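Title: Prediction job returns without error message
Component: structure pipeline
Severity: low
Priority: P3
Assignee: unassigned

Description:
Job completed but the reporter wants confirmation the result is attached to the right record. Sequence as submitted:
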Amino acid sequence: MTSTLHFRRFAGSLFVLFLLCAFSCAVCSAQPNQQQPTKSQKGQTEPAQKGESAEKAPFDPTKAKDAGVGMPTPYDKFIALDQVLTKTKVDWPQVFRKVAVDIDPDKFTDKDVAVPMILGVRIADGVMAIKAKDAELLNKCASDIEKLAKKLGVSDADLGRARAVRAAANKGEWLKVFMELGFFQQDIMKKIDEPEHATHGTLLIVTGWMQGARYTTTVIDENYSAETSNLLREPLLAKALNEKIGSLPANLQSSPLVAKLRDVLPQIEKILNVPRDGAISKEDVEQLNKLATDVVKAAMGTTS
């Protein structure tokens, strides 16, 4: 548990660091008249370090290790789609309105399964609201996240960043919003990572990933190509999520929602298990969207 907690905290910090680096790179790339290297400079190469091989060994999936699964965020997929779909500008606000859920947090009372699942969904919605730069919808997401987290025992003190998220969004300070939401997620995960909330973290992560998959498959289905479909390739992650659900305690395995996850995740793993440079068929992209949607709708329909 300790190593997984440290990994998740590190992953959250790395995520924020990635954002800062990406933002800095974007600014630098916009600077005009960058000095180009001279011909002689282009020809210079760094000497290889002693004992360093010219090529890296090929990736061996059998040697991959599970370092823990962190807080779900589909933002990396959103960035990749923007880079791939250079001829088509994705209407992210429209995608948000098409996929995001509308819930009443007060109606959910099943703290063992339904509440953490819906919390994961709304966290993914919050990330999407940032991409769409929709302050009104982000405020609603932040409010729902706050109410659902309280049902899991997260205190007001741990939820202080929710107000910072809303304040920055209302000012249009989207970089600050993104960073504050990342820290807000970490605060929630620190609480949920405590031993008495371990199962909550698993359910939150899995369904948060499912909601993120709904967003990405919606965009990819509308702009299908072999290249865009390959962005969905995550066989090891799907396997890890499946194993996490399989390791839930016996009293939760009898839940219809957990049974739904046990049924859906192996199907998703099969869809995503394509060669490294392979493509996922359009039919499978649509099926992935359907499977993820079935899980989210099932969670939304369980209010007691």
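Comment from assignee: result matches the submitted record. The CA atoms of residues 103 and 300 lie 8 Å apart.
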